[in-house]
Amino acid sequence: MPIDWAIRYAPMVSFVRRCRPRSILEVGSGPPGIGYFLKNVPIVGTDIRFGEPPLTNLRPVVASSTALPFTDHAFDMVVSSDMMEHMPEALRQSAMKEMLRVADRFVVVGFPSGIVAKTHDLEIVAYLKRQGINIPLWISEHLQSEYPTSQSVLRGLSLGSMTCRVVANANWRIHKAIVLLQTCYHFNRLVKLLRLDDVNLVMRL
């Protein structure tokens, strides 16, 4: 588990634990997803592919975020972390509509946002190029489309009686520093000794 990933998940995990949802769907979960932090909680996770075996508490469902194979209000809570920025801009609202459709009470979506996130990624790319290090696929995918913002993702959606709240997630300066440190072998050795599933510890970052 990369530490920058754990930092971005930590506020979401803290919210899930406070709300204690009856059921959870994670859209764009990959093999571990939020289930890494909620080991005793059954999670349904969707993705277009699962490159490795999922965690034991995650039930994988191969599906597109724009056509979720579930009935309306099927899950008490729907979460999605670090997916929107990998999608073409034209598909993001379709994905949001699907998450709102299958959620009964809560939808929690996290993503790197706007010009701050783009500038941050470009600075990382410039550093990696100077060091002769290959650019990670995730950054290349970020740069293919306009970076999402809360306004662009929510624009035109019919929220009905739902209340929307926008909150800050990861500190971008710390995130940038950690991404660069992750190019260092000794830093990665140190991170392996940390309990990254300890959300209280990670939230301090």
> In percent, how helical is the residue content?
40-55%
Residue share in β-strands: 5-15%
- Report the mean per-residue pLDDT as an integer: 91
Report the structural category. Answer: alpha/beta
Instruction: List the total number of helices.
Output: 8
Query: What general form does the structure show?
Result: globular
DSSP, total strands: 5
In the predicted model, the low-confidence regions spanning at least 5 consecutive residues are none
- Summarize the helix and strand pattern as letters: HEEEEHEHHHHHH
User: What can be said about the biggest beta sheet?
Assistant: 5 strands, parallel
C-alpha end-to-end distance: 16 Å
* Strand order in the largest sheet: 3-2-1-4-5
Radius of gyration: 17 Å
Structure notes:
- By secondary structure, the chain is α/β, with parallel strands linked by helices.
- 40% of the residues lie in helices and 14% in strands.
Features:
205 residues, alpha/beta, 5-stranded parallel sheet, 8 helices, globular
Summarize the structure.
With 205 residues, the protein is α/β, with parallel strands linked by helices.
Secondary structure: elements and pairs:
Blueprint: H1 3-19, E1 24-27, E2 43-47, E3 58-62, E4 75-81, H2 89-102, E5 103-110, H3 114-131, H4 137-142, H5 150-154, H6 172-181, H7 185-191, H8 199-203
Parallel strand pairs: 1-2, 1-4, 2-3, 4-5
